[in-house]
Each structure stands twice: as C-alpha cells, then as structure tokens.
Amino acid sequence: VGMETFTKMSDGSVSKPHVAFLASPGMGHITPLFELALRIVNEHNFQVSFLVITTDATLAQHKYLHANPHPDLHIVDLPPADMSGLLFEDMTVVTRLSVIVQESIHPLRSVLSGLNRPKLKAFIIDIFCTGVSNACKDLSIPVYSFFTAPAALLAFSLYLPTLDREVEGEFVDLPEPVKIPGCKQIRTQDLMDQVRNRKIDEYKWYLLHVSRLSMSTGIFVNTWDDLEPVWLKALKYEQFFLDIPTPPVYPVGPLTKGSEPVSNGNEKDIMAWLDIQPKDSVLLVSLGSGGTLTSVQLTELALGLELSQQRFILVVRTPSDSAFAAFFTTGFDSDEPIAYLPDGFVERTKEVGLVVSSWAPQVAVLNHRSTGAFLSHCGWNSTLESVKHGVPIIGLPLYAEQRMNAKMLSDEIGVAVTMPVVGEGGETVVVGRKEIERVVRMVMEGEEGKKVKSRAKELETSARKTLSCGGSSYETLARVAELLRRES
Ligand code: UDP
Ligand code: UDP
C-alpha cells in the first residue's frame, strides 16, 4: 500500500483514511453495514467509526459487534435518546425505525465533528437514517447509502416518487402490474407492505427516505451482478434512472455474517444432531428474526412437515395471534413457543425432526453438509445466507418486500419454489398442510428439487468468486475505496 493512501497528521504521523457508518436498529441492517465496514478495514486498509444506536439494542447486537475487536474499527455508542412519551405500540416497522433514528441523531453533529480528524471521507448509512443529511452537509461529509434489500427493490424504490406523482388512488388497485422502465414488472399483490396504503405514516416515511436516496453520493447494494443482472443493468443504463439522476449504484454483496461460534448447549445440540444426519437431507425451517406465523399457519406448517416425512429443524416462535390464544385457552406458557405446536407433534416426529425454540445459529446450520434446503420467509439476509451456502429455498413470504423477493427467487433466479401465500384478490391466505407437504417433497426429493439445488450450487460458486480479488463485488468496492482515498 503506497503512502498516498494515508493522511499526514499535524504531528507528522500518518493515519489511514477514515469513514463512519450508522445503521438503524435491527440485525437486518446492522449486519450488512458492519460486514461492509470489516471489508473496508481488512481489505482496503481504512479505519472505521461505527456509530451504534443504543436505544433498542439487543444482546445479539452487542455480541455481534464486539465479537472480534479490531484496532481500526471503533464502535461508537450514541447516547441513548429519551423516547418516553412515544407510542411505539401504535407504530409499524418503518415508522418505528425512522422515529428511533430521528430521536437518536440529535447529537450527531457534535459526534461527527469529534470524529472528523482525520477528515471523514464518507458517512455510510442505511435507508432509514437519511435524516443525517443536513448535519453531513454542514460538515461537508459525503453521504453514501447502503440499500440492504435487493436491487429489484432499489429500482422500485427509486421509481416510487414518480409513481406517487402519476397514480391516483392505491397502487394495489391498479389494473396492471407496475412496470418500472427497463425492469421486470411487479404484480400488485407482491408490492411491499409499506406502499399498500398511501394514507398512513408508514408509506410517508418510506417515500421520504427513498426520495432522499437519490441525493446520496453513491448507493451500495447487497447483491451482485450474477444474482440480479436485469435490475442492476437497468439501474445503470436505463434512461429513466439516468434522468432522476440516480447516483452510482455499487453492488458489493453478498455481505452476510460469517458462521457464528456455536456457544451455548442448545446450539451445540443442534450441530451435534446435524452431524449424524445424511448429507443434504435436512430442511431448515426458520422465518427470520421478526417472523411469526399465525397459530393456524403454524399448525398447518407443522402438520405439513410431518406428512412430508423429511428430516427437519423447525425453529418455532410464539404465533402472532398468541395473545388471543393465551387469553382463550388455559395451560399455555406464552414464553414457550413449542407449546403452540399441534398436540403430540414433537413426540411423533422425534425420529426425523428437531424442534428449536425461538432462535437457531442460522448461518452455521446453512453451512452444514447435512442441510439440504431452507424453508424461509425470504428476508434478504436469510436469502443471501442461503444462496451463499448453496442451499435452495422454499419461500413462505410473510411481510415487508418478501413476496417480491420470493417471486424473483423462483421465477427469475430459479433457486426457490414459493408457496402460494396470496389469493386471487391479493389477500394473504393460509397455506394448507397438503400444499406444504407437496412442496417440501418436491424440493427434497423431486425433479424440481434437483433444478433448484443445482442453481443454488452455481450461485454459491458465483458468490465466492464475486467477493474474491478480481470478482465484480470485490473490484467494485476496491474502486470506491480508491475514490474515497482521493476525496480531499
Ligand atoms: N427496506 C428497504 N431498503 C433497505 C432496507 C429495508 O426498502 O435498504 C425495506 C424492507 O424491505 C422492509 C422495510 O424496509 O419493507 C423494513 O425493513 P426490514 O424488514 O429490514 O426491518 P427489520 O424487520 O429488520 O426491522
Ligand atoms: N437469524 C438467526 N437465527 C434465527 C433467525 C434469524 O441467526 O433463528 C438471523 C439470520 O441469519 C439473518 C437475520 O437473522 O441474518 C434475519 O434477517 P432477514 O433479513 O432474513 O430477515 P428479518 O429478520 O430482517 O425479517
């Protein structure tokens, strides 16, 4: 590394180029941003200040951020904001995140001024932190966004302000799918939850953030050219996006957390159980960090798994309607999700199945040779973790943009088979046990299974290549690192 990459300090010493990060709460945002920070530090010789919103922080978050201390990666806790009086129970996810960030960044100007030596080359934020732009403008620090969802959603999001101007009424009532210039169309029933009702705060916050997105200096996105070629090409060359204008889009993915150290007894038991199963024989069933099913859907899922007679690990969370369930039924222990499974299920399936309460070391399980497929809600981090380990997906999308992800994974990318979760009128429907059985068998032992498995293996290789020296995501980040170094 040449001397030109370092800044000379007033005392004559040199220091590495410096960038700061800020992620909104939730592992789904913190993980990809932190993995990007690690790469910039380890592979491109930067130093990073990683700002953390401590309100709402979880133990999982703390453990992850502090697992491997690095001398050039400083974790900077923002002072906890006073949020008493805010009615979080009444807010949906994007509103909640936006309000927490808004309240937490009051001290940002002074925090950034304190960090600004050597001068920050960039401030890298996720999409819910766009409120930082004024502070950064005053301090002349360029803002980069990291879009932690697919390029397909990035394209839709950049198109949203136009759609908002041109369409009257609700997008979900449009007679035709939404056609984004240069891109595949999106069926109205697959539109993300945040844009299904334009009258509520959730939509207004999302629109505000995406409107500010096009004002960033650059947009990182957690994907790579082989995974979403059409969408990335449109973002780069399509006249519509050039006209917005869209800042340069930098695909740097798949950035996912590394295999976590398996620490507690419960996690060791899961890995030990996997060790004695045949190769590719186990279906991991897990629906994300926030993913909860209704009790009816949980019952159908469990009974469908049982009918399929396949090996499985089922991660169970308390159903979303459990408050009512607990209210109407006695004998429920609401802290023990396994109690919500059908009577006798655990006992009947114990030869082939492992039921895990609440949380599994997902990456370690996906990385295990016995894991053959992943029944997932298609959250973007889970999706990337799955394809990175060559594991095909059975999609059971639940919320946010997951229906769109699932559709793309099955119809465009060919690495998934998706359950029919929306009815004719766009309403959410319960997927019955027979359908679950059919799809699980099809993927675990049918012809369709062979296709999605071989596609998953291709993507595993492609993911490894793109992140290695000479690969597209690696080189893209190297190029940005070089641009940032030269930033005065
Ligand atoms: N989202 C987005 N761009 C991003 C990250 C998230 O459009 O870069 C969307 C995401 O698809 C979802 C919503 O914002 O509709 C909430 O994000 P997420 O589900 O990641 O929040 P979490 O459940 O992790 O708190
Ligand atoms: N996760 C995990 N164990 C679980 C459930 C989830 O480790 O039992 C992790 C998973 O590996 C992923 C993240 O939580 O990194 C979930 O992110 P995703 O974007 O898939 O979905 P979200 O939870 O944001 O809806």
Short synopsis of the structure:
With 488 residues, the protein is an alpha/beta fold.
Task: List its traits.
488 residues, alpha/beta, six-stranded parallel beta sheet, globular, binds uridine-5'-diphosphate
Description of the structure:
- The protein is built from 19 helices and 15 strands.
- It is globular and about 70 Å long.
- The protein has a seven-stranded parallel β-sheet with strand order 5-4-3-6-7-8-9, with helices on both faces.
- With 488 residues, the chain is α/β, with parallel strands linked by helices.
- The chain has helices spanning 27-44, 59-66, 93-104, 108-115, 133-138, 151-166, 201-213, 229-237, 239-243, 265-275, 295-308, 322-328, 345-348, 362-366, 380-388, 402-413, 433-445, 447-467, 472-486; strands at residues 7-8, 14-15, 18-22, 47-53, 73-78, 120-126, 143-147, 218-221, 249-251, 282-286, 311-316, 353-357, 371-376, 393-395, 416-418.
- Helix 11 links the parallel strand 10 and strand 11.
- It starts with 6 loop residues before the first strand and ends with a helix.
- Helix 1 (27-44) runs parallel beside helix 2.
- Residues 324-334 have low confidence and may be disordered.
- The longest helix is centred in the last third of the chain and has 21 residues, at 447-467.
- Residues 27-28, 31, 257, 286, 288-291, 315, 359-360, 362-363, 379-382, 385 line the site of one uridine-5'-diphosphate.
Fraction of residues in helix: 40-55%
Query: What's the main sheet like?
Result: 7 strands, parallel
How much of the residues is beta strand, in percent? 5-15%
Low-confidence stretches: 324-334
Number of helices: 19
Overall mean pLDDT score?
92
The first-to-last residue Cα distance is: 18 Å
